[in-house]
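Let us practice reading a record.
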Amino acid sequence: MDGTNQMIYGKEIRNLKIEEKWDKFNDKDYLDFSIQWISEIKRLVKEKGKIL
């Protein structure tokens, strides 16, 4: 539901490589992917909530 979460925590797992085609990004594709998931989190968090 939109705007219902007080806080969302997203932690990158460093050096985790899946070695599958879907897990390989060039810089532009990785940036586009990151913007998409961050935008989705922004939609889900409350107006005064936190994204960590």
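A brief commentary: The chain has one domain: 5-51.
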